[in-house]
Each structure stands twice: as structure tokens, then as C-alpha cells.
Amino acid sequence: MRGVSDATGTSVRAFGFTLAGVDLLLDPHDDAQYVADAVVYPLYLAPSAVLGLVQVRGQPVPVLDARPVPRGQGRRIGEVRVLVLAGGGDAGALLVEHPPQAVELRPESGDAAQPLAPDRGVSRPECAFADALRDSLADVEGRRWWRFDATALFRALAAG
Predict the structure, then answer these.
(1) Which of 41, 48, 62, 82 is the most buried (most CB within 10 A)?
(2) Distance from C-alpha of 73 to C-alpha of 136, rounded to nearest angstrom
């Protein structure tokens, strides 16, 4: 699965997912793989956002959970839904509640042949990975989708 797929009519199609209530767009240059029933193996003494490890094509991949954990409560371990992002030779997985979805983005000019222009002046949502958010775009229904730096997102979550 790749981020932006093609232009049709007056919109551009991309893939997006929701992480801790924030809608994120997949980068068209990064590979992503959705795993519906990933088995997570706990990684004891890891930072609180590190849920554990999953195996993807025989390789261990860390799974991060962006949701805040109330004090005194643990995280759910077992079969979960994860989105594995692989870019630049590194891989990491994010705990997601739903599979990635096709998103129709609306170019500012209304012409899909024109590049997408980010919305300016939109404040970032409050979340543990806000510094990883680059800019946002609106879909055809007006929903706000954020482009993000995957490396910065993983670092922010792993730092707790």
C-alpha cells in the first residue's frame, strides 16, 4: 500500500489512518502494511508507549501505542490491529483501531492536476506526537488530514 495513489476528476486519492484521534496521511514514498490480527509479544521494561514486538516477514518490529495510559492500568497485549511503516530501511508499527482508508483530497484550486496545497494557519492537535505533524490537508468532506514525519513520530512516542 502506498500513500497517494492517483488523481481522478477534481480530487486526489490517498490512504490515511487515525492514530489516537488524529487523522494521518500515509507518505506516498513509504511502504505500509496493515496487519489485522497481529500477535504482540511484550517487551518488558520498555517505555510506556512501546506495546511490544510483532513479527513481519520473519523480522521483529516494535509496536507503539499513541493512546495515553491511565496510571495503574496496563496496555492490552495479544491480537491487535497494527500498521507497519517501513521507510529508509527501518520498520515500526503503530497500534490502530481501524484499517487505513482511501481518502479523496481536495486540491485548493479544484483541479486535480495542480499540486495539493496545505492549509495554513491550522493549529496542530494536542497529542504526544504533535511535533511530527508537518501540515494538514482537507478531504472532499472537509475532514482534516495531517502529513507527518514517520521517524519523528516514532521517536516522540518512544520517548514517552
Answers:
(1) 82
(2) 33
